[in-house]
Write a structure and sequence with these properties.
Helix content is 3%, strand content 62%. It contains two helices and 37 strands. It has helices spanning 10-29, 73-79, and strands at residues 49-51, 54-71, 85-97, 106-114, 119-128, 132-145, 172-185, 191-212, 214-238, 241-254, 256-260, 265-267, 273-275, 291-292, 295-296, 302-309, 312-325, 331-356, 361-365, 369-387, 392-416, 448-471, 476-503, 524-531, 538-553, 557-568, 579-592, 595-608, 615-628, 634-653, 663-665, 668-691, 697-712, 725-729, 732-740, 743-756, 768-780. Strand 25 (538-553) and strand 26 (557-568) form a beta hairpin. The longest helix is centred in the first third of the chain and has 20 residues, at 10-29. The chain starts with 9 loop residues before the first helix and ends with a strand.
Length: 781
């Protein structure tokens, strides 16, 4: 179930070795000359060279990586993904015109990661003062994710046979390419123009899962492309007022294509392979006894084929208007209005053959089904700072957001069954067509589905912030304010109607046709409303008080503290707070140029005491850091962060083995209820020591650690705590030695270790440790 990966390139490594040998040999043949008895006074050689009318500086770092991984390769690739091979690790180029009479005045180009690193990027900037600014960038990312606890069915080891799921059923290995090109014409002029283009493409394989009687693993192939164009103009009305207009056009095409993965496939008695899917001897499994003497049980839920193709086309135009002004001495003004709308369409073609025992279904297809949606969005932001006097300011900010989405889905599905004379549907019974009497249960869907669904969702938001700021003195100030925010939310309203669902015999009077008349051929046709419109609109008003203070003593000591407190009169999600209190503070202190100290504190608390919810959440964060650079010879960076999160709320669930203390769910006696907990303490530490014992030699030692210790309510005794009880350590060492003028040897060692304190569970172990060595030569002038 792992995707293929390109191995180390031995030829590339041979080239790197030859380059290292040649440069080292050149250094030995051209030793640094002894110093002159009377050296001239100098302040150091300037960087760069004058070439062809330009002052040029550049550097390039060529080498490679050696990676040695022990333990879970999948987990290493998920968190690190540095592989062995030759690399262009870094590169930079800067050109500055000496006469300003060339086609450009400045040019910079920098890049890193070429040759196989999971992230590679390059950026180019060109400017001609007063005429144009251009920037272009390219970024390539190889995204590997395989955390095997995600969507893992946790098949119990007691099963016979035991079918472990060793990789995440939702793992992916996609490639993302991003392109951005920005051009500003006539910058710093009264009227300037902007033209931008960006492209984001994601392609590659992944896995997913689908439920049809049992959960099957599917191959999921991504191919998504987003092209964006932006055109704009900026008009400077006067020195302190600018009016801007921007037109944005976005085109999206893409989606995933699914087909059946043959994980957990077994032969039937006729030799045909059937896939029983991911779960095995637990909830969602194909049946109680999937195998009989190594032969697949034909009475179980299973798949012969599955496919889904649903690519989406979307066009999104957006218009934006901005006004920024400080023409009036007593007023700073900023206003923005944006309107956007979109149209999206997608065909749906889904096919399945196999068996769903609950409904006796042997297959279906949705040829001709399609969906269309429309989206409208508008927003406005207006902010003003009114300077009442030199010490007193009034800040007013108003925000408006409004969006709505409406979509139609035409469902044309043909469902297939076996003959009623068979007595029961199995994986061995053939599909037959009407007018043969078909085998249906009361749970069987219509044989022909012809339905239309319309769904709408939307939200309107008003927010007003008003704040008064007063500078008590040059070093101390206070602020107080009030914020009101109103949400009008329509979380989802739907209308569904049958345009002509057909139910064939036997048992034609089922589903929507349970009380309908029969056609002359014994079938039943239903036309009518299935789900009428509702009115789920919810309004929430949220009120927040704001208090704050700041202190500044010269450039060495800065401190501020802010508090927010308030509540809301309604909620829509169980974690929406009806009361909250937040406190934030930070301080930075630099008693001397070589010593900088800092600290931050955050406290957040939110509650919703509604009966049956009793939501209670708090979060504490403490951060301290120090930078010590007493001279050119050594320096030290230190940082520590502690984060404590706790969240409690009542949870309703369905489980064959409910946790101790569970009771009947309030409002639904068919479910169980428990006061759930989620808590974690995360500690992060960082240390970096820089040492330059010789002018030619600089070294760096470092260490960082992320330690998580937490707990949560468990509904499955086979589920490990995973990242809630884990430690991730990354010590490192690096050296830079100047071999010759402009040539340096660069070496680095990184160690990565990830482990979990709780038991592994019926999954592949996630522990790994890895040594990653980087060797390179750097040339610069």
């Amino acid at each position: 179930m792992r995707f293929p990966r390109t191995g180390a390139n031995s030829t590339a490594w041979a080239i790197v070795a030859v380059v290292l040998t040649l440069v080292a040999g050149a250094w030995s043949q051209n030793p640094t000359p002894p110093p002159s008895p009377t050296p001239p006074a100098t302040t150091g050689e300037p960087e760069g060279k004058d070439i062809g009318g330009f002052h040029v500086t550049q550097s390039i770092e060529i080498g490679g990586r050696i990676s040695d991984v022990n333990g879970s390769q999948a987990m290493y690739d998920t968190l690190v993904d540095y592989q062995s091979g030759a690399r262009i690790l870094e590169q930079s180029l800067t050109m500055r015109s000496l006469t300003n009479e060339d086609i450009f005045d400045t040019l910079t180009f920098s890049s890193f990661g070429w040759g196989g690193d999971p992230e590679q990027a390059g950026r180019l900037r060109i400017a001609k003062y007063g005429w144009y600014n251009f920037s272009g960038s390219y970024q390539h990312m190889q995204n590997y994710f395989d955390y095997d606890l995600l969507a893992n069915p946790l098949n119990p080891p007691a099963g016979s046979p035991f079918i472990p799921v060793l990789n995440s059923p939702h793992m992916f290995y996609d490639r993302q390419n991003l392109y951005n090109f920005d051009l500003v014409v006539l910058p710093m002029h009264r009227l300037s123009f902007r033209v931008d283009y960006n492209r984001n493409r994601i392609i590659g394989p992944s896995f997913s899962s689908v439920h049809q009687g049992t959960d099957a693993l599917t191959n999921q192939s991504w191919d998504n492309t987003l092209n964006g164009f932006r055109f704009g103009a900026d008009f400077r009305v006067n020195k302190r007022t600018t009016l801007s207009y921007t037109q944005m056009l976005q085109y999206y095409f893409g989606g995933a294509t699914y087909d059946l993965n043959n994980f957990n496939s077994w032969p039937l008695s006729n030799g045909q392979q059937v896939t029983f899917g991911l779960p095995w001897f637990n909830s969602g499994s194909p049946c109680s006894a999937p195998l009989k003497n190594g032969i697949a049980n034909p009475s179980c839920n299973g798949y012969f084929t599955y496919g889904l193709n649903q690519h989406v086309n979307t066009f999104i135009p957006t218009e934006q208007l901005n006004l920024v002004s400080s023409s009036l001495k007593w007023l700073d003004f900023n206003g923005q209005y944006q309107y956007s709308h979109a149209n999206s369409s997608t065909p749906l073609y889904e096919t399945f053959t196999g068996l769903i025992t609950r409904s006796n279904l042997l297959g279906f297809n949705t040829a001709g089904s399609e969906a269309r949606s429309r989206w409208n969005s508008s927003s406005a932001d207006v902010s003003a700072t009114i300077h009442i006097n030199d010490r007193l300011r009034l800040l007013e900010t108003f925000r408006f957001r409004n969006f709505s989405v409406a979509g139609d889905f035409l469902d044309l599905t043909s469902n297939y069954f076996t003959a009623a004379s068979k007595g029961s549907a199995t994986l061995l019974t053939p599909i037959v067509m009407f007018p043969t009497t078909l085998l249906h249960s009361t749970s069987s869907p219509a044989d022909i589905v012809n339905e239309i669904s319309t769904n709408m969702t939307g939200q309107k938001t008003y927010q007003n912030d008003i704040q008064l700021q007063y500078d008590v003195s040059r070093v101390f100030g206070v602020r107080a304010g009030f914020m009101w925010k109103q949400y009008t939310i329509q979380p989802g309203d739907s209308f569904e109607a049958a345009l002509g669902d057909i139910y064939y015999p036997n048992n034609a009077k089922r589903g929507s046709c349970a009380s309908g008349p029969l056609n002359p051929d014994g079938s039943c046709t239903f036309t009518g409303v299935l789900t009428p419109w509702g009115n789920p609109t919810t309004e929430i008003n949220r009120y927040t008080g704001v208090l704050g203070a700041w202190f500044r003593k010269g450039s060495g000591l800065h401190a501020n503290i802010d508090a927010q407190f308030g509540g809301a009169d309604n909620w829509i999600y169980r974690t929406d707070p009806l009361g909250f209190f937040n406190l934030k503070g930070n301080v930075s202190y630099a008693p001397s140029p070589w010593l900088m100290l800092g600290g931050n504190f955050i406290y957040e608390h939110a509650t919703n005491g509604t009966t049956g919810i009793n939501y209670n959440q708090h979060n504490y964060v403490t951060m301290v850091n120090a930078t010590i650079n007493p001279g050119k010879r050594w320096g030290l960076d230190l940082a520590y962060n502690f984060d404590a999160i706790q969240q409690n709320t009542y949870l309703c669930f369905q489980s064959a083995a409910p946790p101790s203390g569970s009771t009947a769910c309030l409002g639904d006696s068919s479910l169980m209820q428990i006061y759930g907990i989620y808590q974690t303490h995360t500690q992060y530490g960082y240390l970096a020591f820089m040492l330059t014992p010789l002018e030619r030699l600089s070294m760096r030692l470092g260490y960082s650690i992320v330690d998580n210790q937490g707990n949560t309510t468990q509904f499955n005794t086979l589920l490990p705590l995973g990242p809630l009880s884990s430690t991730y350590q990354t010590p490192l060492a690096a050296v830079d030695f100047k071999l010759y003028k402009g040539v340096s040897f660069v070496g680095g060692w990184n160690y990565y270790q990830y482990g979990e304190s709780s038991f592994v569970g019926p999954t592949a172990p996630r522990y790994f440790h890895a040594n990653n060595t980087t060797l390179a030569l750097k040339y610069a002038f």
